[in-house]
């Protein structure tokens, strides 16, 4: 056996482990983190109405597994937002992500963040539609 064949074997094992981990976390209910929330777009600066909508959404999502949430239509689940569609200021602290996930709180408001295993990191709450990223 050559050195290279040992490396290929290790990389295949690592890939399989990552896929198994993702499948394992898909069977879990989401946990939510505000640790990386942007100071201008965090819940503490939101209106009382927005805070209520946010809590309602977190309860709704939290009652489902990631696998179930991934099957939801974008109106009730998440839609993928490419990094280059978002103003750079809003991604401070989460710049390494290549895309973000957005979910609707109502017709105009969005909660945006990214998923890391079973944790959804909420990086901002968009109360004014189109302020952080253009909506299609």
DSSP helical segment count: 3
| Low-confidence runs | none
% residues in beta strands: 15-25%
Q: What sort of overall outline do the alpha carbons produce when their principal axes are compared?
A: globular
Major pleated sheet: 5 strands, mixed
| Number of beta-strand segments | 5
Structural class determined from secondary elements: alpha+beta
pLDDT averaged residue by residue:
83
> Strands of the largest sheet, in order across it?
1-5-4-3-2
Order of helices and strands: HEHHEEEE
Q: State the oligomer.
A: single chain
Determine the fraction of residues in helical runs and give it as a percent range: 25-40%
Rg over CA atoms, rounded to whole Å, is: 17 Å
Can you give a write-up of this model?
- By secondary structure, the chain is α+β, with helices and mostly antiparallel strands.
- It is 33% helix and 21% strand.
- Strands 1-5-4-3-2 form a 5-stranded mixed β-sheet, with helices on one face.
- The mean pLDDT is 83.
Task: Please name the defining characteristics of this protein.
5 strands; alpha+beta; single chain; 136 residues; 21% strand; 33% helix; five-stranded mixed β-sheet; 3 helices
How do the strands and helices of this protein lay out in sequence?
Elements: H1 3-26, E1 31-33, H2 48-62, H3 66-71, E2 79-82, E3 99-104, E4 110-116, E5 119-126
Parallel strand pairs: 1-5
Antiparallel strand pairs: 2-3, 3-4, 4-5
Quick structural gist:
This protein is of the alpha+beta class. It is 33% helix and 21% strand.
């Amino acid at each position: 056996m050559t050195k290279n064949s040992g490396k290929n074997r290790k990389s295949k094992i690592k890939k399989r482990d990552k896929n198994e981990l993702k499948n394992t976390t898909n069977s879990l209910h989401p946990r939510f983190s505000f640790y990386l929330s942007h100071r201008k777009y965090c819940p503490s600066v939101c209106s009382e109405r927005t805070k209520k909508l946010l809590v309602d959404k977190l309860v709704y999502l939290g009652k489902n597994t990631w696998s179930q949430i991934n099957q939801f239509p974008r109106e009730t689940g998440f839609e993928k937002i490419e990094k280059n569609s978002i103003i750079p200021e809003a991604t401070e602290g989460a710049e390494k992500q290549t895309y973000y996930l957005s979910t609707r709180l109502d017709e105009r408001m969005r909660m945006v963040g990214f998923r890391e295993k079973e944790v959804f990191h909420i990086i901002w709450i968009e109360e004014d539609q189109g302020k952080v990223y253009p909506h299609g």
